[in-house]
């Protein structure tokens, strides 16, 4: 086994690696990430992970990697820095990827951002890094970093980057992208420009003084750009080459393997099967160019003291830690407990910055692991309600033959309960406690979604949360133990443990409202002056929930009845109530809310559960809101077939327009299965995600030839199942930025203003292109056969007009349409013109 190599001569040295025997079979999730982790992340059963944490404790040196999105990070470099060099290593992703695509399911926008947040955390658990975010929203592709900084709040995002630097206190900052404008995503360039700007401000006490004194100014040594691609031979002037080969001392896996596993967590972006071969494998050389700060001739950490010697009075701490590591017995981790307690006592007398405070927490986690101390608090239900009495079962045990006394527990209601000074042993001690959860306990919800956001920024009122990857536990607990005359505080969360192990591992219990409220459809279309039935679901978390439900409508709209009573007898069940909502006489968009009153308390949040096997379950409780769209809309035809692609809301949007929708599977793609349909709509990226589609294209094209209409929503050129995208030749370019229009307000020219697609049954005007969100479209066709007629042209500023966003071809007696216009984003946003134009496309053959 080849262990992680030390840096070459002349570089800042790390210690020689201790070869650990009897590593055993270790789960990658239990490697012990640098981020503070729950007890059990490292344990006596994982002695190599304990040793890795000891090496990390002994080492100073911190690196912050900065880029724009989930999947921008260099996972192999993060793995190397965290697991070979033992540095505190973190990735700051300015956005949560909420503006991207989802290849796993229907979640977009904020829901997708929650998933990608967890994908990044899953990646960090594998590569050993930590994770930070700013408040910037991923608003889609940007061709110019100046546009990005306009849509984001430049000063707020800059303040966030400075805050993360002052919080994490890195010695070195690394950007994934160059700060110089180039033909790349504007978010990419903006991330580097902001990192460079923040590097120059983070140490200035006059910059963002509102962050002081909670945070102290911090000046990193240097900031470097991590260029793409392997580099060979001598480095050009100003460019540093660093070899990052080697194997992880914990698992024996190569850094390439760990990095590939880390990257494979980005599954909503199609990286589920990312492998070492896909990542290049073999020897890897990374290149770096210093952007500002001190030069580096040999290593990223040139001139940086990566030992405890950098802390006044810290040299003896480093020597003691090295001695513990040198004598660490993988077969008997508890043998290190006396030395760890002595080290802990000496460390308490050392003053230092936030990094030293973090080292104290890390030492506590090492001590907990060597003791084999396990502590849990569980409730019998996965969800708890503010104001109700909880039954919490506390259990603690210790595997080591060391005297550990359980003194007390501090619960979320602020109550400290004595545990009777119980002496712990391998069999454990249990105690049930009943207490009332305060009525003002906040509901479980990602902290960045608690307030109404802007198109470019999330709003976060509590500055202590800014930068954090996720919310603190909804139900935090602190247990206090006495070990060797020292007090050890173990923070953790109250969990729910499923009775059936197959249902998944323990998860933190969620705080929820006693009833959830959600509109059956998040968008409702109305004709001017018309009344439509609006349905609202009320679900109960507890049995026998009784109350009233009302709709809150803006001026000009009316609702009958004003409120309705409900009574739900069984927990987990619900009822659907219908209201008649009447729209105003003139077209307009409105927001309608729903509120349930139980007793004297109002509740207006939904209950959205997200479950994918590669991330922990997620719960969102968004406000119950309906986008009510009053518009003049005509349709032709009745029955539309919808062929799902990567996931969108097109089927529900067609139903809102007035169509009957039949979702099509492979068995339906036959002449007989298609013949009674007035039109067929192909969902986004179906030609990328459906392996069954190529074999059924003859039937689909035959349907068009016999008089049918097909509307094919956009596909991307990478990973196509077939290049036969239409009955006539049509191509997509891999030069993606050239064939997309990122400005949602870009002027649209009607190339064929009299074409039926633009006149029947709805007359399309410039007003129909107002209020679009995020972009006009993407993956416009780059080349097409003469049978196709382009209907629209639009472009980003300073670029030639693109005509491949809406193409119509007559084939036989039918019509085939390809569109890159982002209808899939406009429909959930309730953009009237998008509905009107799409209705024309679906109606074109009638």
Task: Give a short overview.
The chain is an alpha/beta fold. The protein has five domains: 60-306, 3-Layer(aba) Sandwich (Rossmann fold); 317-371, no CATH class; 373-437 and 475-508, Immunoglobulin-like; 515-630, Immunoglobulin-like; 639-843, Class I glutamine amidotransferase (GATase) domain (Rossmann fold, 3-Layer(aba) Sandwich), CATH 3.40.50.
Give me the oligomer status. single chain
How many independent structural domains? 5
Unreliably modeled segments: 6-41
How many whole angstroms does the radius of gyration measure? 29 Å
How would you classify the helix and strand content by structural class?
Answer: alpha/beta
Number of strands: 40
Q: Tell me the helix content.
A: 10-25%
The CATH homologous superfamily of the largest domain is called LmbE-like
**What is the average per-residue confidence, as pLDDT, rounded to a whole number?**
91
In DSSP terms, counting alpha (H) and pi (I) runs of 4 or more, how many helices?
17
- Please describe the biggest sheet, giving its number of strands, its sense, and whether it closes into a barrel: 8 strands, mixed
The coarse silhouette is globular
The CATH topology of the largest domain is Rossmann fold
Return the CATH class of the largest domain.
Answer: Alpha Beta
How much beta, percentage-wise? 25-35%
In CATH terms, what is the architecture of the largest domain? Answer: 3-Layer(aba) Sandwich
Task: Kindly report how far apart the N and C termini lie.
Answer: 70 Å
